[in-house]
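The methods section describes the discrete structure representation at length, but only in general terms. An entry of this sort, consisting of the sequence and the corresponding backbone structure tokens, reads as follows:
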Amino acid sequence: MATFPVINLEKLNGEERAATMEQINDACENWGFFELLNHGIPHDFLDTVERLTKEHYKKCMEQRFKELVASKALEGLQAEVTDMDWESTFFLRHLPESNMADIPDLTDEYRKLMKEFALKLEKLAEELLDLLCENLGLEKGYLKKALYGARGPTFGTKVSNYPPCPTPDKIKGLRAHTDAGGIILLFQDAKVSGLQLFKDGKWIDVPPMRHSIVINLGDQLEVITNGKYKSVEHRVIAQTDGARMSIASFYNPGSDAVIYPAPALLEKEADEKKLVYPKFVFEDYMKLYAGMKFQAKKPRFEAMKAMETTVPIATV
């Protein structure tokens, strides 16, 4: 069985550049996921992010989660729960405007750190989008521009903790789904596993690896590449031992961005491929996704296609 793709970004600077670019391309085409080493974010910085995130959970979130478990009677589950997840989360918005100042309970140190982390991840996301452009034969900056609305992209972070679960066979840490947006950058727990992706009819573990950043592609990149790259279904398995930390940052289109397959890719594929993905405004897709997140993505694309024929969208 093929092993999960782990890519050393440092190798882009030497004679292994071509092989590394091919590795990235293969991961985008066949996995929708890959893990990055030597991505330019210092290890001691990541250690501080992990330490302060876990401290914040212990101090501000753990008791709330225990109360939620008690109120929903999730302690001794007999039947499978399919309408909620075993996770404790909060959301930070960075772009187009930040909500950092509005999040209660964050220490000044943690707030400042997460602001700095967001800037580092935003830069890495845009570097990766350009590497994807290079592999796809698109002009540099095309994908970044494709995700821009009038106020640029939407960028935010979901900070999650998955506490130990007494009945992991009855409830998921996070139910299976594909991500709606552009490119996702995940800093996950180095010790406790749980993230899995669906490939070739099987669930495959995304291995925890110290100081790595896991990348996965969202639905919008599938549309823009007209299916050459795919968003892939993934889930989090609840664990009986150990709390798992997950910090997922989503570099998504601006709400008013018009998303459609890159014309340059359609020209290349015209003969062999008749399927063309729909054209839509990202905000409209998100309204649909909100109610269909944990369902198959194909009906979402079909619904957008049906909408496209009734509502023409001008491309700027």
Observations:
- DSSP finds eight helices and 13 strands in the chain.
- The two ends are 45 Å apart (CA to CA).
- Residues 292 and 299 are 9 Å apart (CA to CA).
- The chain has a mean pLDDT of 93.
